[in-house]
Amino acid sequence: MPFGFGAHPYFHAPLDPRGSREALTLQIDASARWPLDARLIPSGPPVPLDGKYDLRIARTLDAEIYDDAFRMKPVTDASAPRARMVDPSVNAAIEVRADPAFGDFVLFAPAGNAVVAIEPYTCAPDAFNLSARGIDSGARELAPGDTFEAGFEIRLSAP
């Protein structure tokens, strides 16, 4: 059976309505991003991070919008966050930690909606079609009787 799993946790942006979406900072432990076509479907192998997509160092959200998929760096410290959103108005950080099985993350920060979603995925969006084209997308195949187990957690902390 072809298999992939993605979770879609959404957070208020800002966490406190008296805060500012623009003041939030985002950071993702990514190594590349998936190029997207006009329908926001990955169109080829991952490309280098640049501009607004280089979130390896915390970056202020400002007026940016995201609906983007990222290939993550290999996990070197399982206790470290893979992605993080900091709201300075309440001096709080939301951290998403994930097992190495979650090799991709999607970041969703739309215009006109006070939310940010930090979404751990075990494979790229549209992984099965990418795999059929010979692109390593993280898609898995479970044989009869096989099981899959992985976890992620969301933590609230002081930055």
Q: What level of helicity do the residues show?
A: under 10%
Task: Output the radius of gyration.
Answer: 16 Å
* Oligomeric form: single chain
Termini, distance in Å?
A: 41 Å
Strand order of the largest sheet: 2-10-9-6-4
Number of strands: 12
Which tags fit this structure?
1 helix, globular, five-stranded antiparallel sheet, mainly beta, 159 residues
What does this structure look like?
By secondary structure, this protein is mainly beta. It is built from one helix and twelve strands, in the order ββββββββββαββ. The chain has one helix at residues 127-132; strands at 2-3, 10-12, 25-28, 30-33, 59-60, 66-72, 83-87, 92-98, 104-109, 115-121, 140-141, 152-157. The strands form three sheets. It has a five-stranded antiparallel β-sheet with strand order 2-10-9-6-4, with no helix packed on it. The protein has a five-stranded antiparallel β-sheet with strand order 5-3-7-8-12, with no helix packed on it. The protein is globular and about 50 Å long.
Task: Quickly describe the structure.
The longest helix is centred in the C-terminal third of the chain and has 6 residues, at 127-132. This protein has 1 helix and 12 strands. With 159 residues, the protein is mainly β.
Secondary structure topology:
Layout: E1 2-3, E2 10-12, E3 25-28, E4 30-33, E5 59-60, E6 66-72, E7 83-87, E8 92-98, E9 104-109, E10 115-121, H1 127-132, E11 140-141, E12 152-157
Antiparallel strand pairs: 1-11, 2-10, 3-5, 3-7, 4-6, 6-9, 7-8, 8-12, 9-10
